[in-house]
Amino acid sequence: MSYLKLDHLVGGYQRGVPVLNDYCLEVEKGELISLLGPSGCGKTTTLRMISGFLRPTSGKLILDGKDITAEQPNKRNIGLVFQSYALFPHLSVFRNVAFGLQMRHVARDEIAARVEKALAMTDLTGLESRLPSQLSGGQRQRVALSRAIVIEPSVLLLDEPLSNLDAKLRLQMRAELSRIQRALNITMIYVTHDQTEALSLSDRIVVMNRGNIDQIGVPEDIYQRPATPSVARFVGFDNQLEGRVRSINDQSVTVEIDGTPIVAKPHKLPGNLTAGSAVSLLFRPEDALLADREGENCLDASVLFGTFQGKSMQYLIKVADRDVAVVVAGPRRRADGDSVKLSLPAEGLIIEKKEQRL
Amino acid sequence: MDRKARVLGALVGPSTLFLTLFFLLPLVFVLLESFRTSGGAFSISPYITFLRSPRFLVVYGRTLKFGILVTGLSALVAYPASYALVRMSKGRRSVLMSIVILPLMTSPVARTYAWIVILGRFGMINQLLRGLGLIEQPAKLLYTQGAVIVGLAQLFLPLMVLSLVSAMENIPRDAEEAALSLGANRLTAFFRVIVPLSADGFIMGSILVFTGSITAYVTPAILGGSGVLTLATLMQQEAMVLMNWTNATIIAVVMVVTTLVFYLILRRVRPEMA
Amino acid sequence: MKRTKFALFVLILLYLFLLGPFLVIFVASFGKQAVMTFPPRGFSLEWFDKVFHQTMFLDSFWTSLYVAFAATASALLLGIPAAYAFVRHTFPGKNLLETIISSPVIVPGLVVGFALLRFFVLLGNLPVLLGLYLGHTAILIPYALRVVTASLRNFDPDVEEAAISLGAARLRSFFLVVLPNIRAGVAAAFILSFITSFNNVPVSLFLTGPGVATLPIQMLVYMEYYFDPTIAALSSILIIVTVLIVQSAEKMLGLSKYV
ipTM of this complex > 0.90? Predict the structure, then answer.
């Protein structure tokens, strides 16, 4: 029996159309699950339904066996961490964190003890009497976190909590969040559009797109074996070449690009693919190679532009009438204008069937 | 959702109800009553009779004239003044701004009374002119059109300044500097860059000053007397002195319609401001 | 720069024009003569004495004070929830309601007072004082609405949701979290409304009766019959009090932002 169950939720209307349509998700206790997707994919809508600020028009929300669909947001014991932190500007750090406990009529001395414990956990001891305006961005973020965990919520919901921090702080806080989640064994649902964040934090990732779940899986699965082209694009399959299917057998598909046969061995084939279908081949800049001699899966190309990235070079290549990026470790070895062969990895290719254009 | 409807009703209901009962209702009633002739029948003849009377037309024309003059004067003075204010440092500007709003907060009776002291027969200006030997008898400065215009200008200038300053504050400093770097002199930059970009503030300020001027009561009452009547003082006369409620209502309608027309023009020209 | 010098010159003239009259009143209120002369001859405080001892001024002062307090409090009580609804929610008819609640701004004060007089006082036999209260409240509601709306707009709605998620019911969250943070706006609305009501002439003009008159109206009546500096003295007092209130409000709240 899963701890949190979203059962066929429909709702979040925008211009008459529901953002979530028949949305189902099951979360285990103590799991850190990320909702990953581009803006508008419905991840915040999902969060708001769980917290109770948005009512689904149909469907059920079950937490720890109890149906909470009709429950008021202030009665759900769900912790919220907002992107803007939403601290109470007129209250000190202590009173901000104590707020939830006061609402629950916890005794004075117990409040003090629990608040101190929460502040210690987020490394904020000593700042109790400060006002939010006197804190740095990182400190405010941690107060928001303390405030949400001190009430010992059944579920902790975080809406892009780190996006307002600078890069270095973000990395630090990511590690902190992970540590705290494990220490308290809190069930956490984390919304983000940053794939690196999702990949590094989550036990499982839910990749969403336009209100639908494209894929649920552990980070390695999402990264290595994206289930759909849209998930693939999200985890770094930035390059795209067009071609036509020449032949299919049970292990591979041969696609003709620019007259050259390219063998692809994807972990998943799109449905009803036949010889002659128009397809796109997706691959990562890091997975392709630049060669000088003819070989397997090679296409003629020329270097347009090379950008120095420190440990690697990023080359913009023109191939089959398209521009494609290739990342190669090491110093600059190719000059602008050089002819080169682009070598595509058979297993690193995703096949996307092109829609029939009318 | 029913609950949301109930909550909204509780939030907005009281004020809407209050204003509908104690504001809109009396207005509508009074408006309807104005269409009654002395016989009790409904007709628009009271309107036609009064609106065509020279008594009304002279006053209406004068009131509009005052409105335009006061607005023009305010703009003329407020533009350079606002420009200077905006060029000042933040600290100084906020001190000066808080002084500008002061006249708006003080009693209009007190403010207008000052002009009696200044323009009266034994007032400041007359004493000065006599002292300098320029005139023998005290000049009649009070109860003239000029007095009313000056009084109204003092009342409404701060409004124009406030509108213009807030509009000018939004003009990036660089815009003017860009113009100068391209060869314009200060005056050209002012007219080509500052004036167009502060147009919204000017329009808003003008509407406020104009509608305020044509509906003002205290200033024309004190400084104009019964010799220089405006719509507002005419209305008071009709209602309280002549006991002609119908005419008073007609004047009220004219005031509201005139004000409304200008608001609607504003809406057309700058919909986001209305 | 020539342009800025000229602008500065006009600015100085502006301030002289705006503030000069106040100075004139101050000086005039200390004169000895019974007719308004300037510059005044002699020094006397008799006009100030008159102000504090004339029943008509004292009575009308209290009337103005009561009406201003009652009307301001009512306008805030009616306006704050409405402002909240408008800022936080969308609903059908919102624009219409907003127009209705802001409509007193468009109607000239004279017309408001006149309509109330005819409808409630003369027809409905309502006491004049009540009519005054109703009229003042009506014209103050848009002020309260506008100022509180500005304050609420600056307040992050997520903070309210945070309070609710932590267990506070909607109403409680409003008092615990929203109100403390829009305190400055509400205070500014109070001061602005109070001053507007106290100084108001147009609405009060028609709503005057036996024993019921606001201070500004009383001053106007006095001016019709007497020409002595009493009004100058009273004006001076009023101006000083206003300046003190506005300056301290400015210091504490930054009042000029809300005007």
Answer: no
CA dist B78 → A288, B91, B165 (Å): 68, 20, 9
Percentage of the residues of chain B whose pLDDT score is greater than 70: 96
- Shared-domain flag, residues A227 and A241: no
The domain spans of chain B are: 34-273
Answer yes or no: do A299 and A191 share one domain.
no
- Residue C97's CB: how many other CB atoms inside 10 A? 20
Shortest CA gap B176–chain C (Å): 13
Chain B residues with beta carbon closer than 8 angstroms to that of C84: 11
CATH 1.10.3720.10 fits C61-234, yes or no: yes
Cβ contact, residue pair C103, B23, below 8 Å: yes
Domain range summary for chain C, segments of one domain joined by +: 61-234
Look up the CATH number of the domain holding residue A343. Answer: 2.40.50.140
Q: Say whether A147 and C180 touch across the interface (CB within 8 A).
A: no
Residues of A in contact with C164 (CB under 8 A): 53, 73-74
Q: Within a domain: residue A325?
A: yes
The CATH number linked to A58 is: 3.40.50.300
Domain match, A96 and A225 both? yes
The pLDDT mean for chain A works out to 90
C-beta of residue C89 within 8 angstroms of C-beta of residue B8:
yes
Asked if the model's pLDDT at residue A202 lies above 70, the reply is yes
Please answer yes or no on whether C115 and B26 come within 8 Å at the CB atom.
yes
Residue A355 CB contacts under 8 Å (≥ 6 apart), including other chains: none
Q: Are the CB atoms for A233 and A282 separated by under 8 Å?
A: yes
Instruction: Please give the CATH number for the structural domain made up of B34-273.
Output: 1.10.3720.10
The chains found to touch A (3+ Cβ pairs under 8 angstroms) are C
- Supply the range of the domain harboring residue A34: 4-233
Q: Which of A142, A164, A160 is nearest to A87 (CA)?
A: A142
Q: Which one of A51, A103, A144 has the shortest CB-CB distance to C167? A: A103
Residue from the list B107, B117, B186 with its beta carbon closest to the beta carbon of C232: B117
CB contact under 8 A, A88 and C166: no
Element (H, E) at A352: strand A350-353
In chain A, the number of structural domains is 2
Highest-scoring range by mean pLDDT, A203-212, B106-115, C103-112, C207-216? A203-212
